[in-house]
Amino acid sequence: MKLCSNCQSTMPLQARFCPNCGAKQLDINEAPIEKILFDIDQAIDKQFTEQFFLALKRRIQNEHHGQHFQAFSERVYESGFRDTISRKADELQDNIDIKKKQGLADYRQINQAAELMMEDILDFFIIRFCPDLTDIDLPETILKHQYSNNSKSDLQTLLKDYLDLDNEQERIYRDFLNMPVEPLKNAGKAYLYPAKDEKIFFICDSSPLGNGKEGFAMTDRSLYWRAPFQKGKNVNYQSIHNLKQEKDWVMINDQFFNINPTLNLKLLKLLKKIQVWGY
């Protein structure tokens, strides 16, 4: 079941028109998946609900291969999360009204803020209410770093909470004095070329033989990595401009990155956060 976007009456999930008020409903299977865009001169509540389901569809397609979208949609109402969506819509409406009164209603900035708010809501909904519907478990510690509710977090803490490396199957090294010499040297030759004053947070060795020739590392400035049969690559956090998931791997500034599906997704979300907060 779902609620009418106009009168809030209950109706079947696939209903095209509300049986109570006759309002046409958004057909989520036909609607184009576009970037969030609100008309700030119109009531936000209906727009916000429609945009939430479009954003949810986009998220499921991008991060979970489009599987079980209907089940995710139904979970919104079964879990009572529709009330949270309404509260967030009211919050956005209040912010817009304040900006209008102050003469500061910048259309572009409001939509950018709304997009970040929507990302927060999707993370919260999927992590907290839909773990049984996803094939990748994301750590709840991600929710500590919501865009709209927290000040900029310490980068090392952000890495820890997003990547949850203690629960990963790969070999992770943080103490480089006690790291085996061979994989440390091989990582340095294959892909890890930090500046002298650059702080290395960790090295992840994903090579099948544990020789350190493949994997990735993160510092206080950059991401370094090497995939099988490829040259070493790196990207400075401030130069990140294009992040995309393709099947089970990730493209970072159009460069291929692949460790494992779970770590790939967590890293993608981490880099988006880094990109927004400007480390």
Summarize this, please?
By secondary structure, the chain is α+β, with helices and mostly antiparallel strands.
Description:
- This protein is an alpha+beta fold and 279 residues long.
- The chain has helices at residues 44-63, 69-78, 81-101, 107-129, 155-163, 181-190, 261-277; strands at 2-3, 10-11, 171-173, 200-205, 215-219, 222-226, 233-236, 243-246, 249-252, 255-257.
- The chain is elongated.
Helix content: 25-40%
Major sheet summary line = 5 strands, antiparallel
| Unreliable stretches | 28-34
Provide the β-strand percentage band: 5-15%
Kindly, what is the distance between the CA atoms of the first and last residues, rounded to a whole number of angstroms? 43 Å
Mean pLDDT: 86
Q: Output the structural class.
A: alpha+beta
SS summary, helix count: 7
Write the element-wise H/E pattern from the N-terminal end onward. EEHHHHHEHEEEEEEEH
- In the sheet with the most strands, the strands line up as 3-4-5-6-7
What does the radius of gyration come to? 21 Å
Total number of strands: 10
Apparent shape: elongated
SSE topology sketch:
Blueprint: E1 2-3, E2 10-11, H1 44-63, H2 69-78, H3 81-101, H4 107-129, H5 155-163, E3 171-173, H6 181-190, E4 200-205, E5 215-219, E6 222-226, E7 233-236, E8 243-246, E9 249-252, E10 255-257, H7 261-277
Antiparallel strand pairs: 1-2, 3-4, 4-5, 5-6, 6-7, 8-9, 9-10
